[in-house]
Amino acid sequence: MKIFSSEQLYQADQITTEKQQITPSDLMERAGTQIFNWLHQRMQGAQVPIHIFCGIGNNGGDGLVIGRLLIENGYNVHMYVVNCSDKRSKNFLINYDRIKNVTKSWPHLMTSEEDFPEINPEDIIIDAIFGIGMNRKLDGWVKKLIQYLNAEKAFKLAVDMPTGLYANEPLQDPEAVLQANHTLTFQAPKLSFFLPETGKYVPFFEVLEIGLDPEFLHTTEPLAELIAKQEAQKFYKQRQKFDHKGTYGHALVIAGSYGKIGAAILASKSAFKAGAGLVTSFVPKCGYSILQTALPEAMVLTDTEDTFITDIQLNFEPSAIAVGMGIATEKKTVSALVKLFSETKAPMVIDADAINCISENKELLKVLPKYSILTPHLGELERLLGPTKNDFDRIEKTKAFSKKNDVIVIIKGANTITVFGDKLYVNTTGNPGMATAGSGDVLSGVIAGLLSQGYDPLIAAVFGVYLHGSAGNIVSQQVSYEAVMASDISNALGNAYLALFEQEPQPQEEPQEK
Ligand SMILES: NC(=O)C1=CN([C@@H]2O[C@H](COP(=O)(O)OP(=O)(O)OC[C@H]3O[C@@H](n4cnc5c(N)ncnc54)[C@H](O)[C@@H]3O)[C@@H](O)[C@H]2O)[C@H](O)CC1
Ligand SMILES: [K+]
């Protein structure tokens, strides 16, 4: 699914009304009707008081449409206009006028704190104050209204976006954002829904189609792409009957130091689980017996040094490499990386301490192989890029880094984002249980396993992140978030592949009486 910017959505609106020869208020009617249908299906006429707060723009206009339809269908509706400015939009006014067709009680005009209504915990609040058109900080009594509504226990439903958030810009005032329980957003989710600083205000959302021009939606390069099952299925490469293990390549995992050999085991095992034909683990000498015992399928090469990596001597040509998990940042390890980066032709995943080595020794950037995949968590990313001001700034700086160095960067987090130049891929799988030691080592192994099978680096990155998150979801459903361990995630990779093509359970039909 595509994530469009607010600018693109306005453009889509305009193209849609032109091509479909409809008025903007027809489009608003569609949008409001979709939300009304959503509510009506769930409420079935229940007389719960519904308080609709409408701004003075088109988000407010949507609120007026929703209110009119609810009143027409006999619901218990209380409408308010958050009258913060007299610059009411044309389509707000059209729908304001239409209210009189269904009720004699005109929406309550709010102009100060004194107008805040009483709301009971069982009531419903609909936030149609501001949507994608919010262009400055909320202040004065409008900010107080948001805080007043937040303090109420009533269920809060946001129209298009929670008021106080921007679609694709950083948060300005965390104390002036509606804490919506649920958001119904039009046509495409907004980027701010997926980033930690803003996404916390959007715990649940659904996308409602409003029939924007299909050609525009298909042909426009989006701000970002959301990667869910449907997208991930397209990445999968079917195996052929006469393939042999050479077809799936020979992955090399360069990992571990004294006390951190587990990182090499997790990554190597995950490369196998992702489908690599052969896996060799390169570890310091102290890791030899550990690896041969813990992972008999892997071949093991060792450094001359006992406790950390100093020189990566190979006796084969790897088809993919994952490097950095638990390797520490010793000077000799940095030299080994310089040599590896300069000499190796295989596609490469660069993780953990290898990223820290780059941050501490920027000359490594000069030899970074093109299309390498870097997998930093937030701390590692900030060490690499320097401090960032907010989630959006971080994305922009990552894009610039990716372009400058021709690399793919995976920003790990709740919604892991893969960045390649201006392209952003937002992952939808994963859960808080995966914030556990070794989870990143598994991811690096998975991506190396995909690379070794010939997946293109960008696809290996995006697909690997999806599979890793899906495996984490499968495990957490079995054992709880708390009990998820990295080795469980690795073990569940097989089920993540199977889940990729599993049919979603269909709603059961009532048995027919004969
Ligand atoms: N394609 C779609 O998604 C459709 C969306 N619709 C709805 O329209 C809104 C966007 O409407 P717009 O009028 O452009 O903006 P808002 O209603 O969000 O804001 C109104 C207006 O208010 C002014 N303003 C902005 N910030 C402030 C502030 N802090 N204080 C006071 N006033 C402010 C500014 O002038 C804004 O323009 C979208 O979210 C959907 O809900 C259509 O109904 C259908 C198509
Ligand atoms: K809203």
Automatic annotation (TrEMBL):
CDD domains: YXKO-related. One of its GO terms (biological process) is metabolite repair. Binds 1 potassium ion per subunit. It comes from the Bacteria. (6S)-NADPHX binds at residues 58-62, 131-137, 160, 263, 326, 377, 441. GO terms for molecular function: ADP-dependent NAD(P)H-hydrate dehydratase activity; ATP binding; kinase activity; metal ion binding; NAD(P)HX epimerase activity. Keywords: ATP-binding, Isomerase, Kinase, Lyase, Metal-binding, Multifunctional enzyme, NAD, NADP, Nucleotide-binding, Potassium, Transferase. AMP binds at K412, G413, A414, N415, T416, G440. K(+) binds at N59, D127, T163. Its cofactor is Mg(2+); K(+). It catalyses: (6S)-NADHX + ADP = AMP + phosphate + NADH + H(+); (6R)-NADHX = (6S)-NADHX; (6S)-NADPHX + ADP = AMP + phosphate + NADPH + H(+); (6R)-NADPHX = (6S)-NADPHX. Its EC number is 4.2.1.136, 5.1.99.6. PROSITE patterns: YJEF_C_2, YJEF_C_3, YJEF_N. It holds the Pfam family Carb_kinase. Gene3D superfamilies: 3.40.1190.20, YjeF N-terminal domain (3.40.50.10260). Residues 9-218 form the YjeF N-terminal domain. Residues 228-500 form the YjeF C-terminal domain. Catalyzes the dehydration of the S-form of NAD(P)HX at the expense of ADP, which is converted to AMP. Together with NAD(P)HX epimerase, which catalyzes the epimerization of the S- and R-forms, the enzyme allows the repair of both epimers of NAD(P)HX, a damaged form of NAD(P)H that is a result of enzymatic or heat-dependent hydration. In the N-terminal section; belongs to the NnrE/AIBP family. Homotetramer. This is Bifunctional NAD(P)H-hydrate repair enzyme. It comes from Ulvibacter litoralis. The lineage of its organism: Bacteria, Pseudomonadati, Bacteroidota, Flavobacteriia, Flavobacteriales.
